[in-house]
Structures are given as structure tokens and as C-alpha cells.
Design goal:
The protein has 70 residues and is mainly α. The radius of gyration is 22 Å and the shape is flat.
Length: 70
């Protein structure tokens, strides 16, 4: 049985190409200094704030961890 040919339109090919480009950039230029990097928490908190703004008004109840007694 022969292996399947790798095609340019393979779904994972774009991700592999992007990863290869990033790794080549690291190899050529090194990592940026820590003062120029964005901390992980900043984009995460921005995203959470955006999600909270999009949530319907009654949606806060689902975040309450108090058990519902019926």
C-alpha cells in the first residue's frame, strides 16, 4: 500500500505552514524581550470582558455556583 500524497489543500497544511513561519522567524530573530511581549492575562481578560458585554441580561444566574433547590 502506498502512502497518501500530501496535497497543498490539506486542512492542516495551512496550520503547519504558519507554525513553520513562526519557528523560522524565531530561528532568524530570536524571541522578543519580555518587556515587549503581551502578558497572557491581558488578552484573556479583554476577551472575557467582551463576552460578558454580549451576554443577555438574565445570563448571570448560570454563573452562580449556588445549587438550585426545587
Amino acid at each position: 500500500m502506498s502512502p497518501l500524497p500530501i496535497t497543498v489543500n490539506h486542512p492542516g497544511r495551512a496550520n503547519a505552514d504558519q507554525l513553520a513561519a513562526v519557528l523560522e522567524d524565531f530561528a532568524a530573530n530570536g524571541l522578543s524581550v519580555p518587556q515587549q511581549r503581551t502578558p497572557r492575562e491581558t488578552p484573556r481578560e479583554t476577551h472575557f470582558t467582551r463576552l460578558l458585554a454580549q451576554r443577555p441580561a438574565g445570563g448571570a444566574a448560570c454563573l452562580d455556583r449556588t445549587p438550585v433547590v426545587r
